[in-house]
């Protein structure tokens, strides 16, 4: 493969390798649009080399950059009147900050924080916990989370002091604000189960209108989620998601009358939905076995009609006032694009185009808890056994899908097979599969990963002497845990922003993740120390045999740096082979050059230890 000599133009590509082009190619998110001004849109793009917010006037075609910060910005919301853009201002990726706002028509932003005024004066910095903006553009409901206060929700009106309408120690967040601003839906976990929310509907004065709670306790636990109020004045219907039949499905709940309308769509996978703009129908997103599809559901006629999309994954979809649907689509082989059912490409950023990759192959492996779904990619025409990367997804309540991912494609370009495992704990395979995570945190996932590894070796795909265990966030956690618990199964490990010392991570992480850990492990480190110890990579660090590479953000509030350093110190104390790369950001980077550097370092680490092909390396990690 041709390598870049550093002189190629990023815009033209030159002799830049395909894997680097994939990261540099301009990307855009699915555009958000203003309910009462649908020609005003907001989207995220990396066109400048850093992911930032952009305003788009569809009438004139003008697109303007809204934010300009060293470490990037992705959290933003457009007011329903289309006049204001709210964006979250944190410090270097630490996710702790305030909401600011600027007029939609404002000019270019100043570098970093800029002149944008605080959107909710009087609210101190916090972690965000949801935001809903009223149609008048002057009213908002702001969710916050802090270590001291737990979760609070505030009604914010321009020119007035914020009013607190909800407070609880457990995690909670803003769901939606009704079309006329008279009802506020929130998700809360006052029952102490952060994996399964209950719902409450409040008036703006904080008084309770309605409650819905499917949590049962014991061995049966069901969750609810807010999908949105009907987009009609005076309409008290709330679209919600429920798990009553063992998977996520939509239901319409009239919060005034209490009537529940179960849609019973009879689709086999998880189902989400949103309203069409006139409130007469739903846009349904069905996710099943790592792929997704769209449907139109007519509420009066109870008719479900397929909305044609190519095979692959729809990462987001929205119904426009003219009846068309815009959606962000990709497959493992084809880069993401924002399409419309009109046949048009909605956003096609200029500049370098991303090369495609290879298709995934589906593999089903019998595991200790049932059939495990894995997605496999390998270089075209290659025969095994191949050096193989087990790229483990984060979340943990997430799943890998047939969607485009530049990281796995880079490994394939360098001659590796890539295996991604939707272990127990992953979403998309039913509630029981997801909730199995709580039984033996970390350990149960590794059992599934080991079963797929055994298949990969016995099938002739994977070279057992050149096996890479890697992942980010929860995937980084499982990487370090796997290297200690399964030391003879892996040749090297590459852990990105991992949990490494579970007890210390708990004490340092953001409040919402503390709630999740209490749910997963049954309490705090002081209350259930044996569970934290059994599930912590630090417990098994002395058993690690394979060389370890770790990258970590020094401002990460999710997998904080102190607990990573504790793990690294233990590796260093026994002269275990390891390298560490620390970067000035949070839980990952929004800067393209930084991400490319990290991938280069990971490829180089694998090449040096496995004798495989490497990309050009322009930075070095700290070797010990």
Spatial strand order of the main sheet: 29-30-32-31-33-34-35-36-37
Provide mean pLDDT, rounded. 93
Output the radius of gyration: 24 Å
The parts where pLDDT drops under 50 for at least 5 residues are: 1-12, 615-624
Shape assignment: globular
Count all strands and give the number: 37
- What is the SS-derived class? alpha+beta
Q: Beta-sheet strand percentage?
A: 25-35%
Give the % helix. 10-25%
Number of helices: 10
Strand count, sense and barrel status of the largest sheet are: 9 strands, mixed
Distance between the termini: 31 Å
Protein described:
The structure is a single chain. This protein has 624 residues and is an alpha+beta fold. 17% of the residues lie in helices and 35% in strands. It has 10 helices and 37 strands. The strands form 8 sheets. Strands 29-30-32-31-33-34-35-36-37 form a 9-stranded mixed β-sheet, with helices on both faces. Strands 1-2-3-4 form a 4-stranded antiparallel β-sheet, with no helix packed on it. The protein has a 4-stranded antiparallel β-sheet with strand order 5-6-7-8, with no helix packed on it. The protein starts with 17 loop residues before the first helix and ends with a strand.
